[in-house]
Amino acid sequence: MSYINDALRKARRENKDDDWPLIDVFSTAKTETARSSRRLWAAGILAVLLLVTAAIALLYWPREKQSRPDQPKPAVTAVLPSAEKKAVAAPESVMLEEMLRETSETRPDARPEAQESTVDSNEIDVRYAQALKRQNEGQLDQAEALYRKVLEMDPDHLASLNNLGVIFMQQNRYGEAIASFNDALDRKGDYVDAYYNLACLYARKNDTKNSMYFLKKAIGFNPEAGQWAIRDSDLKTLVNLPEFKKLVQVPKR
Q1: Are 181 and 165 within 8 A, CB to CB?
Q2: How many CA atoms within 13 Å lie on the side-chain side of 89?
Q3: How many CB atoms neighbour CB 160 within 10 A?
Q4: Which of 253, 185, 246 minimizes the C-alpha distance to 221?
Q5: Distance of alpha carbon 228 from alpha carbon 243, whole angstroms
Q6: How far apart are CA 244 and CA 68, in angstroms?
Q7: Residues with Cβ < 8 Å from 235, sequence gap 6 or more?
Q8: Cβ distance 153 to 124 under 8 Å?
């Protein structure tokens, strides 16, 4: 840019005007460029801020203004007691009907054969529970009738055969008791309860030989039967026998 300044000096000399200031075009242009750059940066930053503000407004403004739909209040219904709770106070016949009805309602898509099997199983369980309750309460005739009902539905129900034998033994019906215990053993040869009860039955009849035989069988299948025997009053005729003492002694460890 020096040629511009030289021309200005020449013109100033010709005009004899020394006060005419020199113009530094390069410096002026540079200053203007800097100012323009700052303006552009400021405008750019402002534009970015405006865009960010607009984006935030678009994201959040509709959510703040949108009204939430009214949520329907849940209907309040009376809570009925479960079948299990009903059964506590309900008569036993009603309990059985309730269980059978629930079984058929909860499995509507099951095959008829499967439904019948499930119903029979539930009825057996109910009848057996009723019989056991009657037996524990000393109502032996009612318990016997219920056990027989179970055996009509399931002739292989071992617990019913065994408990029937116990009822017969309590009523001194020893022949029927032996037959009932033997029926259980015919179905399950290692059924400990039947062996043990036969030992008690023969001990009550003072038949120590047969009593010891069946007690050995019971302890052979389940050593815990020896501990039952120590506390069982039905086996009091065996207590003083050396064979009995040896049989029920606790093995050394």
Answers
A1: yes
A2: 4
A3: 26
A4: 185
A5: 16
A6: 84
A7: 199, 200, 203, 211, 215, 229, 244
A8: yes
Please, are residues 235 and 203 in contact by the beta-carbon 8 Å criterion? yes
Beta-carbon contacts of 115 under 8 Å, excluding residues fewer than 6 positions away, are 103, 104, 107
Give the tokens for residue 18: 């020394």
Extract the tokens encoding 118: 């499930």
**Full pLDDT tens readout for the chain, 253 residues:** 555 556 656 666 665 545 444 444 444 445 555 566 677 777 778 777 777 676 665 555 444 333 343 443 333 323 333 322 222 233 444 444 454 454 444 444 445 454 455 557 889 999 999 999 999 999 999 999 999 999 999 999 999 999 999 999 999 999 999 999 999 999 999 999 999 999 999 999 999 999 999 999 999 999 999 999 999 999 999 999 999 999 998 555 4
Per-residue model confidence (pLDDT) at position 217: 97
**Spatial contact of 104 and 117, defined as CB atoms under 8 Å apart:** no
Residue 41's pLDDT is 72
Domain residue limits, the chain: 2-62
How far apart are the C-alpha atoms of 177 and 203, rounded to whole Å?
Answer: 14
Give φ, ψ of 248 to 5 degrees. Answer: -100, 0
Decide: residue 130, CB within 10 A, 0-12 exposed, 13-18 middle, 19+ buried.
Answer: buried
Q: What is the DSSP string of 113-170?
A: HHHHHHHHHHHHHHHHHHHHHHHHTT-HHHHHHHHHHHHHH-TT-HHHHHHHHHHHHH
- Please state, in angstroms and rounded to a whole number, the distance separating the CA atoms of residues 84 and 86: 5
* Measured distance CA(238)–CA(244) in Å, rounded: 6
CB 248 within 8 A of CB 228: no
